[in-house]
Amino acid sequence: xxxxxxxxxxSALIVLGGTFVATVLRAGxxxxxxxxxxxxxxxxxxxxxxxARAELGRQIQEIHKDGLYRAHPHQFGDREFxxxxxxxxxxxxxxxxxxxxxxxxxxxLGEAERAVRTLAQAAELAPVFGLAGTLISLSQLPSDGIxxxxxxxxxxxxxxxxxxxxxxxxxxxxxxxxxxxxxxxAEEAExxxxxxxxxxxxxxxxxxDRRTGLAAxxxxxx
Length: 222
Description:
Layout lengths: L8 H19 L1 H14 L6 H18 L12 H13 L2 H46 L8 H55 L20
Helix pairs in contact: 1-2, 1-5, 1-6, 2-5, 3-6, 4-5, 5-6
C-alpha cells in the first residue's frame, strides 16, 4: 500500500477549505475565535491547583491572624481568585465570594461551550464537503467518452475526498471538541473544590450577623 497515493492537494482544499468557510459562515467569527483560543490553551499550562491552594493558604492565614477587617486581598495572578478574594474581604461575605466564582465559571463554561459547539458543527460539515468533492470529481468526466486515465483520476479523487471528509470529522474535529470539553470540565471541578475549601476555611472568621448573632455563612459554604 502506497500512502503517498492518499495525498491529494485539490481534495484537501475542497474538504478542509470548504469546511472552514462553511463553519465560519454558520457559526460566526466570534465562535470561531473562541475555538482558536481554546485550541491554543490546550498546549498551555494546566490550572495549577496545588499552587493556587498554596497562595490561598497565605490569604487564609492572614485572615485568621488579622481578621477580615484588617486583611488585604492578595494578587494571585489568577483573575478569578483575585476578584473572589477582593469581594470576600471588601464585603466580608462568603456569598460575595461564591458569586464572584460563579460569574467566572459561567463565563469560562460559556466560552468552552461555544468552542465545542463550533467544532461539532465543523465535524458535521466535513463529510458533506467530502461528498461535494466526490460530485465535483465525477462531474469532470468527459461527456463524449471516458478515457482510461480520466476515469481513473476522477474515481481516485472521488474516493480521496470522501476519505478526507470522514477522517477530518472523526479523527480531528470531533475528538478536538471532546478534548476541549474534558479540559474545561476538569478545570472547573478543580476550581470548585478550591472555592469550597476556601469558604470552609474562612467561615469561622466571618463577622456575626447582627440579626442572629451567628457568623454570616451561606448554606453553600457549610
